[in-house]
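**Tokenised fold:**
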Amino acid sequence: MPPRALAPYVECLWVHRLGDGDAVYEQPVLPDGRIDVVAVGDRVVLAGPASHSTTLRLTPGNLTVGVRFRSGAAPALVGASGADLRDLDVAPGDLWGRAGAVLASRIAESPGWQARLRVMAEVLTDRLPHARPPDPVGTGIAVLLAERPDRPLPDLAEHVGLSERQLRRRVEEAVGYPPRLLARVLRFQRFLHAARAAGPERSLARLAADAGYADQAHLTRESRELAGLPPGALLDWEAERLAG
């Protein structure tokens, strides 16, 4: 759980550790509408919202820790818009100057995941006096679209009392995506969550319908564009990696 003072901005703290072995581990990073502060080994970056998949190659024994921001909440605390961070990994020193450089050096000196997460939380907490509250439009639209990705843009704009142009600007500033791309990403994440819960007996056609796709072909197109693979191949690859 994030420290109480960071709760309006931070969704969770997370850890990913690999065991010892000989094989390099391939970890896909799929679009999810989030911004993270991440330490992969001793390298620290602010990972912006991804619009397409990438694959990290991690060596045995690798330790990765991160602070994940709520969708739309990061810019108010980190001092850069979601749109400016989209598809980028930014060194904290480039963004926060000396405070960011200190974060990177303290991470390198911290041996375990608990200490590293504590350093990240402390540095982010130190930024709170200069932060503004998260934009309720950016964070609120993310919640609405997570519940119903097919909600029309005019309906969303009317719901928050903005023009469609104003809504697009506010959402892209906060989240890093325009509303339609955000809806696509959140719908795909909904599919992935349901598919993982369903296990190997899953029906892609049923999962596509439940996630809000027009049909399985629609899901396949979206999976290729967002994840680089059709959904069946993506899930099989994930199962093989976890089994290994």
Summary: Strands lie at 10-17, 25-29, 36-40, 43-47, 54-58, 63-69, 89-90.
